[in-house]
Amino acid sequence: MIRRPSQSHIHGWLLLMPAAVFLIAFTYYPTIATLAKSFFSQGNAIKPSRFVGLENYEYLLTDEVFWKVVGNNIIYAATTIPISIGLAMVMALWVNGKLPFKSLARMSYFTPTILPMIAVANIWLFFYTPDIGLIDQVAGVFGISGHNWLGDPDTVLGCIIIITIWKEAGFFMIFYLAALQTLSPELEEAAKLEGAGRWYYFRRVIFPLLMPTTLFVLINAIINSFKLVDQLFILTKGGPDNSSSLLLYYIYEVAFSFLDQAYASTLTVVLLIALAVIAISQFVFLDKKVHYQ
Q1: Would 20 be classed as within a structural domain?
Q2: Mean pLDDT, rounded, for 190-210
Q3: Is 46 within a domain?
Q4: Which residues, other chains included, contact 59 with Cβ-Cβ below 8 Å and sequence gap of 6+?
Q5: What's the total number of domains in the chain?
Q6: 142 belongs to a structural domain
Q7: Maximum average pLDDT range among 14-18, 79-83, 102-106, 207-211
Q8: Mean predicted lDDT score pLDDT of the chain
Q9: Is residue 137 within 8 Å of residue 76, measured between CB atoms?
Q10: Hey, which of 4, 53, 104, 143 has its CA 20 to 30 A from 258?
Q11: Domain containing 161 — which CATH number?
Q12: If we measure between CA atoms, which residue out of 93, 76, 40 comes closest to residue 213?
């Protein structure tokens, strides 16, 4: 039986409908609703919400906490992204070679990735707790006094950065490992015949061929650097004095602690625009330079 074109189109749309419903319900509608809410004030039972135009955005420009949080997020992203990606590449090269107990090494590197963020935060509390934590216990052996790692504005953000690198490097390693295993072994044999060393072979052959994977990992790393909430909620709650607060946690705090959903929507719109600009810029300026045909 031959189906008519109209029947085929209907069948195709019916197959797409479940995914389209979820996409509209959980992506497009929340985005549009958040954008619309950012132009209104926060209402309550006594004073209803009203249209205020760009007033929330004007307040954002003068919000000192917002700018401090943005600065924290820039430092956090600029540190975690290159170190996580570089470490992931090194680990992938290591476990892809002729290594004893290779499967055990891969599992060890990947294990932090599968742990829930809440569990990770509680594990690292064991390290960072003043005086009785593992770090201070080891330091005490050498006569070094204890330190409140999560209570010091100078060290708290660095502690969060270390946790993120520990958790994300193994996740990014999987992508690099998969990419390395698709490379033809003939490339390495040809390089050896030409007398190329390991560093030259990596710099001139492997690294350029891994650039598409690096672009993919880079985009994921940037998105991850702007969506950290769990660890901060357990470890520091953004303190002390917002020294460890990041943008998404600040949005959560404004929406659910201060109950100002209008201003939280404004902050969310700014975050979405920033991520969109970064992602589009990467594809426009880097995509053509990293694919080799």
Answers
A1: no
A2: 82
A3: no
A4: 263
A5: 1
A6: yes
A7: 79-83
A8: 87
A9: no
A10: 53
A11: 1.10.3720.10
A12: 93
